[in-house]
Amino acid sequence: MTPNETHKKTPNTAPVIEIKGLYKTFGKDNHVLNGVNFSVAKGENLVVLGRSGSGKSIAIKCLVGLVKADKGEVNVFGKNIVKFNENQLNEIRLRIGFLFQNGALYDSMSVRQNLAFPLMRHSTELTAKQVDNAIKETLESVGLTEAIDKMPSELSGGMRKRVGLARTLILKPEVLLYDEPTTGLDTITSREISDLILSIQKKHQTTSIIITHDMACAKLTADRLVILKDGIIEAEGTYEALEKSNDAWVRSFFS
């Protein structure tokens, strides 16, 4: 086992997330999800692979109710959220952090203000000093304390990703959803973001789903991988096992 693989483990706890028979069609003929089944255990990093249009992003959007499934179960924290109303979904969403591809920062706000915004909205009982301490502590955890008063336009792509992650972390989510966390970054910065994903998993015991086309990120961060094809899970296993699969299509992701 290499040093980068020492985090990998076989989870033995009940799933935090469990998707059963998930279907989603757009229009008449665009069948994106055709009976997807997978689960994620507490503290596990699950990487989701698949060609463009395979339904990866739609599946995780169903997890937070951004897309409504046509059929199936989406069990999060032991509750099937498919028929939840907006208030019930918002309660679940507070326990889930979603890191979008572009970081989704407010360009008119400084880094400090970007991080203060969700705290002031959802933790109204905090004092100004408590908010400030939380911002500094969270920025320290992503290695960006020096950027606290900068504007997003002053940040590199990698720094924007880190700030986006910090803003997600500041509400202390139990689950993190990463949508292409290393897209558009150079090799060194991509490795730094992958290392940060592992650091957060270890420090905060988060449960994470990572959608990526970056196989270096997948190899470094995944406890387990699933591969989507034609709206279903075509393969599942560790990076090392899938890399040696007898299926040429599965192996094509690793070549």
TrEMBL record:
InterPro entries: AAA+_ATPase, ABC_transporter-like_ATP-bd, ABC_transporter-like_CS, P-loop_NTPase. Signal peptide: none annotated. GO terms for molecular function: ATP binding. Residues 17-255 form the ABC transporter domain. Keywords: ATP-binding, Nucleotide-binding, Transport. Gene3D superfamilies: P-loop containing nucleotide triphosphate hydrolases (3.40.50.300). PANTHER family: PROTEIN TRIGALACTOSYLDIACYLGLYCEROL 3, CHLOROPLASTIC. This is Ribonucleotide transport ATP-binding protein mkl. It comes from Emticicia aquatica. The gene is mkl_2.
